[in-house]
Amino acid sequence: MNVDQAKKALSEGFGDSLDLAIVESTVCGRCALYAFVDGMSDRVLLEQGIMQPLVGREDPVVDERTLNRITYSSAQFNRVENFDEAQTSIAEGNILLFVEPDLFFEVNLAKYPKRAIMEPPTATVLKGPREGFVEDLAQNTTLLRRRLRDRSLIIRERKVGRLSHTRVAICWLSTVADERVVDEITRRIEAIDIDAVLDSSYVGQLIEDNPHSLFTQYGSQEKPDIVAAKLLEGRVAVIVDGSPMVLTFPCLFIEGFQDSEDYYRKSKRTTLLRMVRLICVAMSVLLPALYVAMQEYHYQLLPLKFLITVIKATNGVPFNPTTEMFVVLLLFEVLNEASVRMPKYVGMALSIVGAIVLGETAVNAGLLSSPAVLVMALSAIGMYTTPNNAGPFSIMRLVFLLFASLLGLVGVITAVSVFVCYTVTMTNYGTDYVAPIAPLVAGDLKDSLIKAPIEDMEERPYSLPNKNRRRFKKGGK
Prior knowledge:
The structure is a single chain. The chain is built from 15 helices and 12 strands. It is α+β, with helices and mostly antiparallel strands and about 475 residues long. The chain folds into 3 domains: about 5-105, no CATH class; about 135-250, no CATH class; about 265-425, no CATH class. α11 (about 320-340) packs across α13 (about 370-385).
């Protein structure tokens, strides 16, 4: 194959794609060409560090050692065995060097637009680091390595997706993590057979234990300090190129009530806030159901003065309590979706108009009662104290409301019992999902709904599989 034949074959292979750049040149006295995707490689470094040194040389042998010795680039040339691999290498963002008669080499001079490292919008803090992951795999692994500067931090790469060839990094601490968990995660990632992986959530959904579960069984973090802390507990992190969300396995239910800032403030304040989050979630899920159950079946349980207030407020409303609450819930979900999908400033205006103007107008017109609107507002506010679990809890709220409308308080108690039985039977990579509460692991309660001082947490969690229980030793006091 000569240069003209290689150029024609590459053009046909990429369908004369607009972004395929092919530059003819000479390498050590032989005819050659460079092929790459325009915009994904450093063209200046290619011309000055590779092309110019190779043009003026005369060498009888052209191989990886010769190319790496002559060029000024820190990137290394690697031999490509056949033409199909050469085309794949170009598509992955590498520069292909073809030298007559049939030599193919690849070199990585990746340079493409990247988002700057900044505070993630979903994990803002008052205290603690403000760096967040970005969409570049190399930058994300560097952010992680800066916090765990030890050779026990192992990072291995796999490629997933028949068309996307997405790079996926599996990270763990060899001195802490259980090798069985690492091997199982690696096996499941290697078994993924899909056209493309466009975000880390693809990988998370494909390798979690129970893909049909209501709750997400993998952690999704956007800050390197959180991921580093989870690796130190024995978890495994999965970083996907092109996604700022890093997955952590195994994941516990209790993590939804924890926040990175909890570890940067006093333990008593942290305990109070975690309790507040728990109360808010319970209120969000149960309050609409209890309101309907009381009105439909058990109004005699309401205090007399409050009952009179509710009767006055609901007098003239054309819907029964169940229908009214479902209507209010539907309106809230519509407003929530619209405010998220609309542009930022329009979404803010829409939220104000929907929540205040529309709600007040509906109450004044007698279509809805003020207690129903108040109950749903409290439920909606409390839901987002744990934003990572807002989706599952919103579905639970709907189910609890349905049970309450059919059976009253008996339905609410039944729904709670089903929820408890469902969660305590769930496992995640051999870890009980509701640990350390069910089963009870007394030592791990120091960092559950309560938060003990850091000097009291000498050991790593027993709820998670790890092979080094000792975290630190007390001393210095």
